[in-house]
Amino acid sequence: MTDAPSIRIQRESFDAGAELTAFSANHRGAGAICSFVGQMRDFRGADRASGQAIDAMELEHYPGMAERQLAELAAEARRRWPITGLAIVHRHGRLAPGEPIVFVATAGAHRAEAFAACEFLMDWLKTQAPFWKKETGPQGAESGAGWVTAEAADDARAARWSK
User: Fold this and answer.
1) Pick from 32, 80, 118, 120: most CB atoms within 10 A?
2) Strand pairing report for 43-44 and 93-95
3) Cβ count near 163 (within 10 Å)
């Protein structure tokens, strides 16, 4: 049995452990549950050693459009894999390093579809979702800051899912 996807876009922080506990409780019949939590880093770039320091990130979105596109994404995941449950929580607003940005969970009869659907959802969210991110460094907007775009590696990962 499949349930309606749970999709939330919110300013408030969330507790990833509580989200996973609630999702798991609602999918007791699943043989596999896969989850992913993305959180704000305190540096920009491929790694901490070569990256620029980041103090905050502002996430913007178009209300209504973002929810609609995430619902379409959830429907596409369900078309591709026999998952029985799906949840997405995505934040907007100002975030500090260490704060959670996104939570994705999938449930299915077997781990292969739960993993694949979760990975598909995150690859799409990272590269195509209608969220705009601007980072701020220690000295304000001039330092280690700017609008964040998907990196080539992110685009390559997402391209795997193209039909």
Assistant:
1) 118
2) unpaired
3) 4
